Amino acid sequence: MKIEIEKPEGKLGILLPGIGAVATTFIAGVLAVRKGLSTPIGSYTQMGHIRVGKRTEGKNPRINEFVPLANLNDIVFGGWDIFKDNAYEAAMKAGVLDKQLLTELKAEMSAITPMKAVFDRNYVHNLSGVNVKKADSKMDLAVALMKDISDFKAKNNCSRLVMVWCASTEVYIEESKVHQSLDAFEDALLDNNPAIAPSMIYAYAAIKSGVPFANGAPNLSCDFPAMTELAKKMEVPICGKDFKTGQTLMKTIVAPGLKARNLGVEGWFSTNILGNRDGEVLDDPESFKTKEVSKLGSLQNIFEPEINPDLYNDLYHKIRINYYPPRGDNKESWDNIDIFGWLGYKMQIKINFLCRDSILAAPIVLDLALLLDLAKRSGMSGIQEWMSFFFKTPQAAEGLKPIHDLFRQLMKLENTLRHLKNEDLITHLGLDYYEDK
User: Fold this and answer.
1) Considering 327, 354, 381, which residue would you say is the last residue of a domain?
2) Is the pLDDT of residue 432 over 70?
């Protein structure tokens, strides 16, 4: 059956809970590209290509030429933050981008002022701010967010909206009874249940408003049955969680290679230093646990020790994150990997990645926003597993394990785009006696 995709007509509003380093780097980047000041390097939707048809046909269009995505000139930005700084002021304080570039973007960025945020210090211990909503119940806060969403759409004459969580990592919360059904969750909102964190209130407000939602942090947010039930009911696509940027990106590149060569791994020790707001938040043990759980899952999933016990059954995986203010947004990670090969002989791999956290995250925000909008216009709803490529801990359908291998994720992403355009999926058989499709 041919899939009909609505055209991306009109303005697309991108709403961002958290106007901090990641969000302002994303906003400034899009504005710079629109002005011809830079190139959207790192963005799959803007720089990536996709093969269509047989190899012999040589058809490799850019992603934004292959599927109908919103044009960057049609994007409008908005969001919430616990600080009153406009996007220009927040970007200057974040210290990610050159002041000269920000000066050229000052007029547009200064016009982006944050709405009052839903925030509770019980869920992010190391931050506090004054630009915060007050209400009698968490349901009232959700209603206030829905009004913000509606008002923003009308004020900016947007035809469509998406929301991408760019705010902080919350304390670790596990699923409980209030997360198992929509009725239970809504009752818990009315009762101010402590099992409902601010990110869940944003996710609820977005989905209830018909707005696609992506979770860029390891928070539970929309990754539980009540929220997937609501997403299906409202016919809204959702995805998450935790942007795959630095160290975990490297793991999902290196680990599949080790597994492909059937090399054993005895231990993988990972440590990080970073000094931005994310580092400050993760200096709290309860927020760190949320991040740790997110980062630990990838190797277990990729190596599959249950079916490769001789190679990975005794793998010791350790993760450390250290707040180091002098480093700012320039995160540094070290990995020591103890491997073994033929006849059990031991070897080591060392990886030292000096990366820029927000520089790696910003294009992911753009890609998620554009692809979620595409999904909505294509009639897709619920968990979008094909967007696992962008996340540390991808959401998966009930009863299924998420895919962590970056290359398998990319194949799923590209085959989904081919499916949307009614093109043949590519299996890469490529043998002489097969027709290569």
Assistant:
1) 354
2) no
The number of domains in the chain is 2
Judgement on whether residues 313 and 175 belong to the same structural domain of the protein: no
Q: Domain check: are 267 and 321 in the same one?
A: yes
Task: Say if 84 falls within a structural domain.
Answer: yes
**Residue 174, domain extent:** 11-243+358-420
Q: Is residue 40 scored above 90 in pLDDT?
A: yes
Helix H, strand E, coil C: the string for the chain is CCCCCCCCCCEEEEEEECCCHHHHHHHHHHHHHHCCCCCCCCCHHHHCECCCCCHHHCCCCEHHHHCCCCCHHHEEEEEEECCCCCHHHHHHHHCCCCHHHHHHCHHHHHCCCCEEECCCCCCCCCCCCCCECCCCCHHHHHHHHHHHHHHHHHHCCEEEEEEEECCCCCCCCCCCHHHCCHHHHHHHHHCCCCCCCHHHHHHHHHHHCCCCEEECCCCCCCCCHHHHHHHHHHCCEEEECCECCCHHHHHHHHHHHHHHCCCEEEEEEEEEEECCHHHHHHCCHHHHHHHHHHHHHHHHHHHCCCCCHHHHCCCEEEEEEEECHHHCCCCEEEEEEEEECHHHCEEEEEEEEECCHHHHHHHHHHHHHHHHHHHHHCCCCEECHHHHHHECCCCCCCCCCCCCCHHHHHHHHHHHHHHHCCCCCCCCCCCCCCCCC
81 and 221 part of one domain? yes
Tell me, yes or no, whether 333 lies in a domain: yes
Q: What are phi and psi of 417, to 5 degrees?
A: -65, -40
φ/ψ bin of 381: left (φ > 0), alpha (ψ from -120 to 50), beta (otherwise): beta
Within a domain: residue 430?
no
Residues 307 and 416 in one domain: no
Residues 201, 297, single domain; the answer is no
Residue 211 sits in a domain whose CATH number is 3.40.50.720
Residue 6 maps to a domain: no
Q: What CATH number has the domain bearing residue 349?
A: 3.30.360.10
pLDDT in tens, 261-307: 999 999 999 999 988 887 888 888 888 888 788 778 899 999 999 99
Checking if the pLDDT of 383 tops 50, the result is yes
Per-residue pLDDT at 437 exceeds 50: no
